[in-house]
Automatic annotation (TrEMBL):
TM segment ranges: none
Protein name: EG45-like domain containing protein
Any Pfam family hit: DPBB_1
Expansin-like EG45 domain boundaries: 28-140
Record's keyword terms, sorted: Signal
Cited InterPro entries: Expansin/allergen_DPBB_dom (IPR007112), RlpA-like_DPBB (IPR009009), RlpA-like_sf (IPR036908)
Amino acid sequence: MSKPLKLLLFPCLLSLAILLRCSTADVGTAAYYGPPYLPTVCYGRDPGQFPGSGLFAAAGEGIWDNGASCGRQYLVRCLSSATPNACIKNRVIQVRVVDQGTMLNSMPSRNGTTMVLSNAAFQMIASEAAQVINIEFTQV
Ligand SMILES: *[C@@H]1O[C@H](CO)[C@@H](O)[C@H](O)[C@H]1NC(C)=O
């Protein structure tokens, strides 16, 4: 391969890689839920399943993937909400999926969302005055 072509190809591949990475971000909705968090569908009564940060989530039907979502990590950002000023802008959290959204021990703030965040996780990115928020999420 000639040198000029190589020099051209590199930035092209680089921008393609960046584009593909960006396109993995998805939009959806999130609600929140509180204790009792145990047992979970993914890991039962094991208290070691929760990240020390308390940032975890239950997967809604769209991302539950028949249980394959257990243990997946997502970066989550609040995009908007019907509740004015509910989003904490530019705050991104990382949550671990530990449960199934339709099988929680406590009632979520809204049914049928893409994911249900732990209280701690939700409060990191939004005000709990909002029962539901629109999110952007990316699997890590
Ligand atoms: C969610 O669904 C449950 C069971 O169908 C129902 O009892 C509850 O009121 C619903 N919660 C909300 C916030 O709509």
